[in-house]
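Hypothesis: this fold can be encoded by more than one sequence.
Test: take the structure tokens below, design a sequence, compare later.
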């Protein structure tokens, strides 16, 4: 009997289209002998749709037309089963699913929001749980966690948009102490959205304003000289981890931009997600440095309590060979399948491993105690004798 996998993607995020690319890729590689695939697309206005046509990338070029054919739906639990049900006056069962597979990127989705919803329903799901997803999305919080675990991070400072308006002078001094050039980032976005490299102070204000268009929390980091960007994917959970081959990323800009990652740089280039990025595999590093990167990748994965497949991005000064963890991508573009193929793990096998891990995690979790059968309210005598209860008719102290 096949496992019914609900692939959830899209959402209200600036990485909406990136999520579609990643999800359509993944659905195309899932083993149809093992899995029935149910696409679940979340529009930018947070409406959920399902339908087989959602497996095709071309339908998203004019989704307003597609809405006539795709079915609006909601996910819910009934009698230990998980169902997609239609919306409207006459509600109908569309299908049931066994496991959810979120392939989402960015705020309002990858940041733990969707994981929290799935946890509330109780459905097993692939990928990071709430805490790992939330910490992994916040570039400031993740650095704070990594520093406590003695994981090397780039010198940085951070602030909120309201603080910049009130204490601009002090914040500029903090940034100056890092030394130019610096890189300005929205703290909770991915895919290099809203990021600017600043080489001198007179360009800083514009860069911060650009970042504040996307986020209320801003991080400013020192640019590493003689930079080489290296990525490593990790597959597993807190019990077991394995690492992929390393890639050395070749950026057309001063950092790996949204253009590099998803739009391509050739005339008429079509996006294949992160799989289309220019890269060298394996990365041109010594065995010693490669080993250091892989160990730091596993250490970061563990410290942030991640699961499924993630991609850890590194910054290396190729003269001093100092290695810094830049950030984790808890649900990476294209699920980093291209980093596993050189190790002999084809994309369909990677997806199979992720689903198997999620099922194992779910079974382990079911063994834990989350609530008690004892009802402490069963012997509760109402408001008799209770003090200080406000809002109860007749209670003292109202």
């Amino acid at each position: 009997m096949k496992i019914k996998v609900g692939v959830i993607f899209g959402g209200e995020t600036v990485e909406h289209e990136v999520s579609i690319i990643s999800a359509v890729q993944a659905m195309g590689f899932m083993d149809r002998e093992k899995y029935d695939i149910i696409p679940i697309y979340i529009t930018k206005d947070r409406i959920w749709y399902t339908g087989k046509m959602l497996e095709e990338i071309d339908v998203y070029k004019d989704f307003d037309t597609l809405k006539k054919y795709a079915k609006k739906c909601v996910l819910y639990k009934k009698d230990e089963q998980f169902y997609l049900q239609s919306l409207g006056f006459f509600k109908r069962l569309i299908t049931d699913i066994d496991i959810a597979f979120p392939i989402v990127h960015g705020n309002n989705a990858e940041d733990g929001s969707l994981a929290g919803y799935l946890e509330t329903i109780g459905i097993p799901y692939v990928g990071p749980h709430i805490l790992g997803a939330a910490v992994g999305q916040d570039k400031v919080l993740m650095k704070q966690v990594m520093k406590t675990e003695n994981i090397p991070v780039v010198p940085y400072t951070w602030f909120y948009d309201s603080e910049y308006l009130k204490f601009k002078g002090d914040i500029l001094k903090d940034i100056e102490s890092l030394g130019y050039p610096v890189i300005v980032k929205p703290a909770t976005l991915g895919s290099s959205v809203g990021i600017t490299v600043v080489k001198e102070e007179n360009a800083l204000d514009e860069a911060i304003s650009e970042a504040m268009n996307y986020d209320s929390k801003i991080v400013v980091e020192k640019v590493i000289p003689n930079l080489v960007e290296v990525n490593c994917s990790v597959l597993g959970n807190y019990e077991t981890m394995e690492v992929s081959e390393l890639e050395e990323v070749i950026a057309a800009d001063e950092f790996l931009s949204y253009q590099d990652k998803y739009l391509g740089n050739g005339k008429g280039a079509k996006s294949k997600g992160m799989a289309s990025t220019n890269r060298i595999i394996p990365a041109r590093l010594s065995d010693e440095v490669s080993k250091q990167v892989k160990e730091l990748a596993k250490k970061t994965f563990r410290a942030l309590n991640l699961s499924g497949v993630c991609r850890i991005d590194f910054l290396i000064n190729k003269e001093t060979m100092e290695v810094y963890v830049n950030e984790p991508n808890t649900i990476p573009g294209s699920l980093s399948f291209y980093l596993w193929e050189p190790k002999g793990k084809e994309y369909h096998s990677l997806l199979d491993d992720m689903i198997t891990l999620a099922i194992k995690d779910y079974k382990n979790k079911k063994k834990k105690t989350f609530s008690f059968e004892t009802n402490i309210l069963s012997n509760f005598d109402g408001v008799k004798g209770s003090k200080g209860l406000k809002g109860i008719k007749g209670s003292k102290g109202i």
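Residues 3-125 form a domain with the Rossmann fold fold (CATH 3.40.50.20). Residues 260-271, 392-398 have pLDDT under 50 and may be disordered.
Hypothesis status: open.
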